[in-house]
Amino acid sequence: MRRYIVLILILLTVSSAVGLYFFRDYWIHRYDEMIARYAKVYHLEEKLVWSVIYQETYFQAWKIGADKEVGLMQVTPTVAREWAKKTQLQEFEKQTEENVNEFLRDPETNIQVGCWYLEKMRENYRGFPAEIPMTLAAYNAGASRVTEWSKSSEEAKKMTEEEFIKNINISSTKAYVSEILERFRTAETRSK
C-alpha cells in the first residue's frame, strides 16, 4: 500500500512539474505573434521587445506601474497620447483622451505603442557601439539621463556597452538595462 502512495505522489509531482513547464511556456510566449508583427513594423529585434516585456511586467497586460505606466510594455499616458497624435487618427486621440488606461491595457495596442516609443528612443543612438543599452536606458529613465551618462555627444558615439552601463548612476536602471541585455542575448543565441 505504501508503494502505491509513493508512486501516486511521484506521478502527481511529475505531472505538476510538466504542467507548470507548459503553462510557463504558454505564458511567456502568448504574445509572440504580436511582438513579431510590431517589431517588424518598427525595425526592432523581436527578442529585444520580448525581453523588455519580460522585464517590465512578465507579460501581465493589466499591470499599472508606480509612475502610472500601463500594460505589457509599461507605456505612459503621455507617450500614448503622443503616439495617437502622430498617427493622425482622431479615434486614437479620442480614446487616449477619454480613457488612456483602458486604451493601453489592450495588449496589441500596448505592444504597438511600446515598439513605436522604443524605436523613437533608438533613433538617437543608431550606429553607436552602445546603441541597445542606451536605448533601454532612455526607455526606462529618459533620453536626458542617457545624455548625462554619456558625458558628451562625441563620447556617446564611441562608448562601449560596458562603459555606458558603468556610467549609469541609478541602480534600478543599471539593473534594468543589464538584465534585459542578458535575456536578449540569451534568447538571440538560442534562436540561432
Protein architecture, described:
The chain is mainly alpha-helical and 192 residues long. The protein is built from eleven helices and no strands. Helix 3 (46-57) crosses helix 11 (171-190), helix 4 (77-87) packs antiparallel against helix 5 (90-105) and helix 6 crosses helix 7 (131-141). The protein is globular and about 75 Å long. The model has no long low-confidence stretch (mean pLDDT 91).
Describe the secondary structure blueprint for this structure.
Blueprint: H1 2-29, H2 32-41, H3 46-57, H4 77-87, H5 90-105, H6 107-122, H7 131-141, H8 143-150, H9 153-156, H10 161-167, H11 171-190
Strand content: under 5%
Overall helicity: over 70%
Instruction: Give the terminus-to-terminus CA distance.
Output: 50 Å
Report low-confidence residues grouped into runs of 5 or more: none
| Number of separate strands | 0
Could you give the order of the helices and strands? HHHHHHHHHHH
Shape descriptor: globular
